[in-house]
Design goal:
By secondary structure, this protein is of the alpha/beta class. It has helices at residues 2-5, 16-32, 65-74, 78-105, 108-116, 141-156, 174-182, 197-209, 216-219, 264-277, and strands at 131-134, 137-140, 164-168, 188-192, 213-214, 234-238, 252-256, 284-290, 313-318, 325-331. α3 crosses α4 and α6 crosses α7 (174-182).
């Protein structure tokens, strides 16, 4: 996967925002694999996962940065100073988990979500630490956050009428997992992400759906990527350049937060393919983005709808975090 990724055109390679993060993630995977990738010892999913990122030394594992990492890990007294800070930060993290659980338990919105979506889902696989007990169910905070987003999008899009779904920048697969478990009509899925994030998400989804997941090893030699005509579950996990091979009609395209972290030329290219693939009769687009941007590293959320030929409704939607809202751009 990584060898192929080095050979694709720049349009399909990580932009400046993600370039350093992917290098760090690759080295974390080489050292730790997927063990505890949602915990505190593995930084492979940092920036898109819910791991407890309390030890920043894991990001200094490539290039000249690795020299500083070695100093802070192995050489006295630097390592002792840093270790003491990590212990303190872990204590703060554990306290924040308890407080977030208490906050969510007292939120009417969370109670509403758990009442509306009662399917038993394993949400803590991978060593998840940010979780809480909600009525006897151990639930990941990250899953609750994405369930809140999904439910808000479903107020604007008739999700139950959709049979196929395409997501670019799907994290480690949580949104796809929620969709499949909560909406039985959703049987055909394309999940696209950059390596090595793609590897993490693929293996996570495989842990639930096994052979229904078509991984990169299988799809890389396909001349075209298309759904079968049956109702069996299919999840294609593909790299960015493989979007050109997709010959399938999709009912719903979704992107959350990652478009604003890409160069504008990359986003426009993706959007042209999305419009090519979207169902003319039943196609919907949902774009979610955090509010605000650093124009030196990210796009303005308001630029996203301009990349499509259709019009969008823009709404600021509250999240489960107090005083924090996100842009929801919905096109029917």
């Amino acid at each position: 996967m990584l060898d192929d990724a080095d050979k694709v055109p720049p349009l399909y390679q990580p932009g400046p925002y993600w370039k350093a993060a992917t290098k760090a993630a690759i080295n974390e995977l080489k050292e730790f694999g997927l063990s505890d990738f949602r915990g505190s010892t593995n930084g492979a999913a940092t920036s898109y996962g819910d791991n407890a990122f309390v030890d920043t030394r894991s990001t200094y594992n490539h290039g000249i940065r690795s020299l500083f990492s070695k100093i802070y890990r192995d050489i006295y007294p630097f390592n002792k100073l840093f270790d003491s800070q990590v212990r303190l930060t872990k204590a703060y993290f554990e306290e924040s988990v308890q407080l977030r659980t208490r906050l969510y338990k007292n939120q009417g919105r969370v109670q509403q979500l758990l009442s509306k979506y009662s399917a038993p889902i394993d949400t803590t696989k991978g060593g998840c630490l940010s979780k809480g007990d909600f009525g006897g169910r151990l639930i990941s905070h990250h899953y609750l956050q994405l369930l809140d987003t999904l439910d808000n999008v479903a107020q604007a899009i008739d999700v139950r009428s959709k049979k196929s779904f395409f997501e670019i920048g799907g994290g480690f697969g949580v949104n796809v997992h929620l969709l499949i478990e909560l909406f039985p009509n959703m049987r055909k899925v394309i999940y696209l992400d950059i390596p090595p994030n793609l590897y993490v998400g693929t293996q996570y989804l495989k842990s639930f759906y096994g052979d229904s997941v078509i991984d990169y090893k299988q799809s890389r030699t396909m001349t075209q990527i298309s759904f079968s005509t049956d109702k069996e579950l299919e999840i294609f996990c593909i790299s960015p350049d493989q979007i050109e091979k997709i010959k399938a009609e999709v009912d719903w395209f979704h992107n959350a937060h990652s478009f604003v972290e890409m160069p504008l030329s990359v986003v426009k290219n993706y959007c042209s393919h999305v419009e090519r693939l979207l169902s003319k009769e039943n196609g919907s687009i949902s774009l979610v983005s955090y509010d605000g941007s650093d124009l030196n590293g990210t796009l303005s959320p308001m630029d996203l709808p301009k990349c499509f030929s259709r019009s969008f409704e823009d709404q600021m939607v509250p999240t489960l975090t107090p005083d924090k809202s996100t842009h929801h751009f919905i096109s029917r």
